[in-house]
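Case study.
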Amino acid sequence: QIQLQEWGPGLAKSSETLSLTCTVSGVSVNSEIYYWTWIRQPPGKGLEWVGYISSSGSTNYSPSLKSRVSMSLDTSKNQFSLRVSSVTPADTALYYCVRDTIAAAGSLFDYWGQGTLVTVSS
Amino acid sequence: QSVLTQPPSASGTPGQRVTISCFGSDSNIGSNTVNWYQQLPGAAPKLLIYSNHQRPSGVPDRFSGSKSGTSASLAISGLQSEDEADYHCAAWDDSLRGYVFGTGTTIIVL
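After joint prediction, the assembly is written out as follows.
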């Protein structure tokens, strides 16, 4: 079955770079019908779309995070990764990796990882 | 920050019908389809409704979605205790060129 699993350091210090990786199983990250997406959720708050990377490596980031975010794809390991630079405590959140299926009527986030909590200390 | 507005909470007794609203603008709900996600306590969100009113396989028909203009609604009929969760609406925003989510609504079963 399809599974996504995030992993990476759970702690970061202000001004450092946060790095997370998502391992995908049951589907290839090479498939052209999916965007590989990161969504985050600060404790007790709503969801925030961070951005996505396609199978071709093209990216689309949230305008509010664009200057600090980068994503990459490793097809040999069937993984994709997120980097957020110059983090502050406001970047503390549960980070989800998500499969976004490109459908005729728009996209849908149909498979989610369990989420990994990243805490940024000042 | 959330671009789509939802009520913080809604409640009902078992068997009742509860409706959640999601208010947006011309650049998001007014121009694109709306999806809804259910987030059970301590769990990752799950796709509940897509393309305004479509249900993925396995989602009970007690859940229904609709859209009109720049707002959307999620209705839960025959409310059950296991429906206690947070519900999030989402849509693509043409102006922001990204996905936007609602503020989230907590459903409480009394």
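Observations recorded in class. The two ends of chain B are 30 Å apart (CA to CA). Chain B touches chain A at residues 1-2, 32-33, 35, 37, 44-47, 50-51, 56, 88, 90, 92, 96-104 (CB under 8 Å). We will return to this complex in the next lecture.
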